[in-house]
Amino acid sequence: MRDQLKLSMELKAILASDDLNTFMQAKVKRGGVYGKEKKTILHLAAKYCQSIAIPYYCVYKLKVNPKTKTKRSNSSALHYACIYGKLQLVEFLVSSCKVPVDIQRKHGETPLLLAIRHNHNELSEFLISKNADLNVKDSKDWTLAHWAAKNGNSGLLSKLIKLGAPFQGVTKSSEYCLHFAASSGNADIVKALFPYFYPFACGEKGTVLHYAKGNWEIVEWVISNTIWQKMPRLSILLDIGASSSLIFQYCKEEINLGVVLMYDRADLLEILYINKKIQIQLLVHEKLGPRCTEKIKKLERWENVRGLLFVYKHQNMYAKVPLSLTREISEYI
Q: Which Pfam families does the entry mention (predicted)?
């Protein structure tokens, strides 16, 4: 049984410094493992070192097996190198140490899947050139294309598709590449992928519009250039917190007081009031949310102020309007 060691701050600093001479003087115990995960010194070097000098020493002088996996996640040093984007080390482990390019972790992640997941382009290109499996998926059915879409990496996603990697599969959360592309904010990917997917498919967060929340360019493109333009959209736009201007541009005919109050949208309530679609007096006894309640109070006060202004106007007494009332009026202009 190998000794379980604790990674000291001193050894961590030596690894991060890439100073081989200092590392050699540290007298690292051969065969030792670190922490409950039982990482080898090569795992730690893969995480902290930038060059391959110390990893090379670990393999050829300390005789650390580069294929050794950690206890819990079953990760090799190659997996660590892919997570942290260490291209030179990945090349060394794959080409010189002959670590299998498709070696898997506990949940089925291969080095290429991790490289794409962490958005390391050059590293991904290298692994693809080494014939890494393009059909891999993890225990949650995430594929290479899912991760490329989630990261908004249009160049890598395009290459994967051209090479024949699957991109129309669904995860165990019922999510497609289109959903992840929408959440990434990359409108070009959404436009390219849209024809390949059922437009109303729902993942755990909802429709493609739900996934595009906050990415309003994508939301507008979907509801104005796809079959979504023929569907009811108000409730979804309210779900994702769309602005009042966007809602009135695309859902003007759908807007009704009940939905506005349900979502406590004071901004929409004010627009309905301005356009004389509602009467404040009829709402005072309604069960309202906090924002609409506050807006109703302000609109009630405005009606009172407007009544006072009518009196002053009728009596031609504009010059005698109190300063406090003038200030209050300015809040409504």
A: Ank_2 (PF12796)
